[in-house]
Amino acid sequence: MTFDFEDLLAEASQRAGGLQDFGPEDFREPMRRLLAALEEEADLNEMGRVTQRERILGLLVARLRTEEYIERYPEILDEKVGPSFSIIGLGRTGTTMLHRMLSSDDRLFSLRWYESRNPAPLPGSDGSEEVDPRIRDAEAEIEMMLEASPELIAAHPMDAHAPDEEIMLLEHAFMSGNPEAFCSVPKYARRLEDEDATPGYAYMDRLLCFLQWQKKRAGQHADRWVLKTPHHIGFLAPFFEIFPEAKVVLTHRDPIQTIPSMCSLIHSIRVLNSDRVDQREIGEQWSSRLVRMMDRCIDLHDQFPDRFLDLQYRDLIADPMVGARQIYDFVGMAWTPEAEAGMREWAVENSRDKRPVHSYTLEQYGFTEEGLRKQFARYYERFIDPEL
Questions:
Q1: What is the helix (H) or strand (E) element at residue 54, kind and residue range?
Q2: Domain segments of the chain: what residues?
Q3: pLDDT tops 70 at residue 272
Q4: Is residue 124 classed as helix, strand or coil in its secondary structure?
Q5: E strands of 18-89, at which residues?
Q6: What is the mean pLDDT of the chain?
Q7: Do residues 107 and 157 make contact, with C-beta atoms less than 8 angstroms apart?
Q8: How far apart are CA 32 and CA 1, in angstroms?
Q9: Is 242 helix (H, G, I), strand (E, B) or coil?
Q10: Confidence band for 174, pLDDT divided at 50, 70 and 90
Q11: By C-alpha distance, which of 223, 251, 228 is closest to 239?
C-alpha cells in the first residue's frame, strides 16, 4: 500500500463515481509534500498507513463532490462569509468550551464535526432525511478512534454532532497542521509553517460558503459564523486577508497548564498511527512550534489591536457568561435572554466533570516549570500574570 499521488487521485475519482474536477489546483503540491512525509518521516504502522491513506482519499472525494455541487449550483459561490469571529489561543485554553457554548445561539452558524469531514452531502442525500447520513459516518469514525485510544475522550470531547475546528477544512486544501498531530513529521510541519497559507484559507472560505448555502437551505438563519481553531495563531495574516471583516477572541492560560496537556492530547492521537511514539519528542516539537506560532500572533495583535479580544481562562471558568457578554459586545451582537438561557443549558449538560480526568505530567514530555516560563517568556510578559 503506497502513497502514490496519481494512484490516490484515480482511486478517489473512482469512489466518487467518476468525477474528475478536484477544484482549485493549488492543493497538488502541498498534497505531494504530505505524501512524501508520510512515506519518509512518519514511521507509520500498518494501521497508520491504512488510516492516513483513507483520510487522504476521503479529502479528495470530498473535493470532487464539492465541485460537483458548485457546478450544479453556481450560486453557492455567491455566498459571503459575514463579519464572523474565531476563537483561538494556545490549545487547552477553553476554546472548545467557549465555541460550543456560543454555538448554542442559533443566530450564529457553526461548523459541525461531521460537516468538517464531509462538507458535501453524501450521494443520494437530499437533506430531507431525519438524520444526515454524514453523521452516521462521523459517529463510526469517532467510535473507531476511541476504541483504539480510549484516553482521547478525557483529553478532548469527541462528538460527531458538536461544533468543531475549521482546521479540518484547511485539511481539504492539504494546508492543515493536523498531520503533525497524527504522526511525527517535523520537516514537513516546519516547511508548512513557512509556506504561504493563503490558498488554504481561500479554500476554507470556499467550503464555508458551501456549508452556509446548505444551512440556509435547511432553514437556518444567521449572518455570521463563530469559528474556532488554535491553529490560526500562526497564520493570522492570511486569515485576515481572506476574511477581512473577521475578529479574533484570544484566550489565555499559563503554558505550564496548557502545553503538557496539549502534548498529552497529541500523544493519544499519534499512538493510533505509529508504534514509535516518543513523549519527549512530542514535547520538543510542539512546544517549539507553539512558541513560534504565538510570536506571530503577538506581532499581529500589536499591528491590529482592535481586531482582538483577550480573555483569561480563569475568568471563563469562574463565570463563562461574563466572557460571552464581552464577546457579544466585541462583535456587535445583541445579548438576549434566549442566548443566555441556551448557553447556561449547554454548560450544565456539558460540564467537565462528566468526562474522565485527563492525567499527565510535565516530566513525561521533558518539561519543567522554569523551562516553560523561559521558553514562553514573551507570552508570559504580555498575557500571563505571574501572581496568578
A1: helix 46-72
A2: 84-383
A3: yes
A4: coil
A5: 85-89
A6: 93
A7: no
A8: 16
A9: helix
A10: very high
A11: 228
How many CB atoms are closer than 10 A to CB 2? 11
Q: What is the spatial distance between Cα 339 and Cα 269, in angstroms, rounded to a whole number?
A: 34
Phi, psi dihedral angles at 247 (to 5 degrees): -120, 165
Please give the Cα distance from 235 to 194 (Å, whole number): 10
What cell was used for 246? 473577521
User: Distance between CA 228 and CA 165 in Å, rounded?
Assistant: 5
Topology at the third CATH level for domain 84-383 = Rossmann fold (3.40.50)
DSSP label at 121?
P
Contacts of 240 (CB under 8 A, 6+ apart): 246, 300, 304, 307
The count of other CB atoms within 10 Å of the CB of residue 221 is 9
Specify whether the CB–CB gap between 90 and 232 falls below 8 A: no
Residue 352 pLDDT: 57
Q: What is the side-by-side order of every strand in the sheet holding 85-89?
A: 226-228, 85-89, 247-252, 308-312
Mean pLDDT of 284-312: 97
- At 224, which amino acid appears? R
CA 58 to chain centre: 17
Grid coordinates given for 85: 469571529
- A 10 A CB-CB count for 306 gives 7
Q: Is the pLDDT of residue 359 over 90?
A: no
69-103 pLDDT, tens digit per residue, is 999 999 999 999 989 999 999 988 999 999 999 99
Three-class DSSP category at 268: helix
Cell numbers standing for residue 92: 487547552
Predicted TM-score (pTM) of this structure: 0.95
Q: Output phi, psi for 65, to 5 deg.
A: -70, -35
Instruction: List Cα–Cα distances, 46 to 42, 83, 223, 286, 360, in angstroms.
Output: 12, 45, 45, 25, 28
Q: Yes or no: say if 239 and 96 are a contact pair by the CB < 8 Å rule.
A: no
Mark 257-285 as b/e (b = at least 16 C-beta within 10 Å): ebbbbbbbbbbbbbbbbbeebebebbbeb
